[in-house]
Amino acid sequence: MHNEKILVTRSSMPPYEEYIEAIKPLWDNRQITNMGQYHKELEEKLKGYLDVQELSLMVNGHMALELAIQLFDFPEGAEVITTPFTFISTTHAIVRNHLQPVFCDVKRSDGTMDETKIENLITERTVAIVPVHVYGNVCNVDAIQEIADKYNLRVIYDAAHAFGVKYKGKGIGNYGDASIFSFHATKVYNTIEGGAVAFSEHRFYEKLYNLKNFGIRGEDLVTEVGANAKMNEFSAIMGLCNLKYIGNVLEERRKRYHFYRKNVETIKGIGLFEQNEDVCSNYAYFPVLIEEDYCMTRDELYDALRENCIYARKYFYPLTSDQECFRNKYGRACLEQARKLANQILCLPFHDEMKIEQMVKIIDIIK
Length: 367
Ligand SMILES: *Cc1c(COP(=O)(O)O)cnc(C)c1O
What we know:
Elements: H1 16-23, H2 25-29, H3 37-50, E1 54-58, H4 61-70, E2 79-82, H5 88-95, E3 100-103, E4 126-130, H6 141-151, E5 154-158, E6 166-167, E7 170-171, E8 178-182, E9 195-199, H7 203-212, E10 216-218, E11 221-222, H8 233-244, H9 246-264, E12 270-271, E13 279-280, E14 286-290, H10 298-307, H11 336-344, E15 345-348, H12 356-366
Parallel strand pairs: 2-3, 2-4, 4-5, 5-8
Antiparallel strand pairs: 1-9, 6-7, 6-13, 8-9, 10-11, 12-14, 14-15
Bound molecules: pyridoxal-5'-phosphate.
């Protein structure tokens, strides 16, 4: 127990026998990929669970975002307003579409894009906004839509962290022109690797189908320059199995989230993000902010936890705009809050099977 490693997360998996039983039919019909029966079934079930009109399954969240951006045929070199306080995938997806990221600052209150700073960044070359519901914290979707409407911009949400989140009673995937989810092993809900694009316009379903399957529309017919980004049947079955337990996973996370919160919010120098009353959370992460009046720096606390075999993570540090591949390359406003958050943030180990003793050990070390 003393030297047991506590990792930042742990993948949810269904009972072994249940998955083995569920994949058996694949040995009979031998259709293990190419939009088979389980791919269809999972698309339908997720549409229901996420409460969205349309959904296209993808091989992972990153390709979901790349293809969701590609849907709109933006002119090469056009500008996309986005956040640097995210996983590198968000910025990569914009740049790999030959678009220019323009970095907008975020809010201290929840780490999402600061909607009051968007309009200043809009130029005649701006075509879209790509905000992130970081840690499942919901962006100010109403204000962002208002700006998008005023300037005729598309909004594509990176909702990789926001599986199952509801805003004002509606599935989070209903906002903007499209939203992407990640079903990576480390996320709240996984298909081992996987992802999806949620949207409302039905014609995007066909277009995404082309983009994820080489543009093949018939034995001898290719109509579009597509990639290969389709989900295979083993992943789809993992998704179907995991979906049965998602209610339980979210409930276990909720309990642990409140236990952590109650115990760390009183510690001097430990800051927490605000909770939004309109949001039904998925408790995807437990981020804390190590502020100036804490007894050590974020990096010192990170090291102290490591010495006790506790592997917290500095998500998201550094800002994507400061990474070697993007540094000094793209337009940005003053990123004061984002930079400050990146230097203070620490995601504590957190998942649905975490033991209370493990949480107590972490809380005691922080104290
Ligand atoms: C995980 C993640 C992605 C990418 O998803 P993958 O399924 O790992 O490809 C994109 N954006 C954010 C914010 C993420 O956390």
